[in-house]
């Protein structure tokens, strides 16, 4: 039995589809990851996918494809990706249960790896047998 690393809202799926449709025939979806940076320590990364990586996790919704870098999986477990558009800005948002703090500007976050045992106890994840 598998589980999705991350979920996405209807608005996020619609935005991913729009990005892919406007990026040419080689575009397949987007890849989400994390990198060290910013005043809080980590930043989310989003890149266009033209060649999917077989090691990435894939989530799909309404025809939108989002791949997740293997190094980011433990930090993104249980995260919901949304898309927000206001008068002054637009962008993807991440509601992440592994986030412990964020910087004042909202560009970087502090993340802890997911507690797999706690997720399994809640029924949100499958912990592989050792």
UniProtKB/TrEMBL annotation:
<dbReference type="GO" id="GO:0016226">
    <property type="term" value="P:iron-sulfur cluster assembly"/>
</dbReference>
<dbReference type="InterPro" id="IPR000361">
    <property type="entry name" value="ATAP_core_dom"/>
</dbReference>
<comment type="similarity">
    <text>Belongs to the HesB/IscA family.</text>
</comment>
<dbReference type="Pfam" id="PF01521">
    <property type="entry name" value="Fe-S_biosyn"/>
</dbReference>
<dbReference type="GO" id="GO:0005737">
    <property type="term" value="C:cytoplasm"/>
</dbReference>
<dbReference type="GO" id="GO:0051537">
    <property type="term" value="F:2 iron, 2 sulfur cluster binding"/>
</dbReference>
<dbReference type="InterPro" id="IPR011298">
    <property type="entry name" value="SufA_proteobacteria"/>
</dbReference>
<protein>
    <submittedName>
        <fullName>Iron-sulfur cluster assembly protein</fullName>
    </submittedName>
</protein>
<dbReference type="InterPro" id="IPR050322">
    <property type="entry name" value="Fe-S_cluster_asmbl/transfer"/>
</dbReference>
<dbReference type="InterPro" id="IPR016092">
    <property type="entry name" value="ATAP"/>
</dbReference>
<dbReference type="InterPro" id="IPR035903">
    <property type="entry name" value="HesB-like_dom_sf"/>
</dbReference>
<feature type="domain" description="Core">
    <location>
        <begin position="6"/>
        <end position="107"/>
    </location>
</feature>
């Amino acid at each position: 039995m598998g589980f999705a690393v991350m979920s996405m809202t209807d608005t996020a799926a619609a935005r991913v589809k729009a990005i892919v449709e406007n990026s040419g025939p080689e575009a397949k979806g987007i890849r989400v990851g994390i990198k060290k940076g910013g005043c809080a320590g980590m930043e989310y990364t989003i890149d266009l996918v033209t060649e999917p990586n077989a090691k990435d996790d894939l989530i799909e919704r309404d025809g939108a494809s989002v791949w997740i870098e293997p190094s980011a999986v433990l930090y993104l477990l249980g995260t919901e990706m949304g898309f927000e558009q206001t008068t002054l800005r637009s962008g993807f948002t991440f509601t992440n249960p592994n986030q412990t703090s964020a910087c004042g500007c909202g560009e970087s976050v502090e993340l802890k790896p997911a507690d797999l045992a706690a997720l399994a106890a809640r029924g949100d994840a499958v912990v592989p047998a050792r």
